[in-house]
Amino acid sequence: MQVSSARNAFPSALKDDAEAVAIRLTNTMGLASPSTFTVTIDGETVSIPDRVYFDEVTTRAGYSALHLSVLDCLQTRHHSGFVRERALRRILDLNTSWSAPFTVQLISEYVVEILEIIEANWGQIDERMVARFLAENPRFHALVKQRVISYWNTYYRRLSRESYVGFKLLKRLERLTVDVARDN
Hints:
The protein is mainly alpha-helical. The chain has helices spanning about 5-10, 15-25, 65-75, 80-90, 100-105, 110-120, 125-135, 140-155, 165-184; strands spanning about 30, 35-40, 45-50, 50-55. It has a two-stranded antiparallel sheet with strand order 1-4. Strands 2-3 form a two-stranded antiparallel sheet. Helix 4 (about 80-90) packs parallel to helix 6 (about 110-120) and helix 6 (about 110-120) packs across helix 9.
């Protein structure tokens, strides 16, 4: 992976760790997508690749726990939905401000099986952390909503809005933002 793509995907406190992971990946991978999505994490702007193209890292030996978390966040951007799903399962309970965009971004994608995993495991997610992330990124939050609606309309319209998992997740996100607004 391009080292700069990995470094730019995380706040400055993790840039060295992201670089170390990317350097290990350079032997097994191609490139990160030139397109990114930009969000703010604890006041810092980061640019996360829309997709990464490298072989799935299945040998996890030799990575520190932090490096594995960084790796798993990056693998949620993988071009294979199966790899994204496996990585998501490993970061659901990570509950750091820097992992939030990787989870929330998956809500705005079209792979319904991934959405179902998020919904089924919502209890592992620190809602306050997600609420802070959404409050800090209202434009990103709006984009997530637009994409859920668009993907439902394109691929899942046969399902009612009430039964489509993307809308269930949007309700959860909306409740979080209402709770934050009420508390402020």
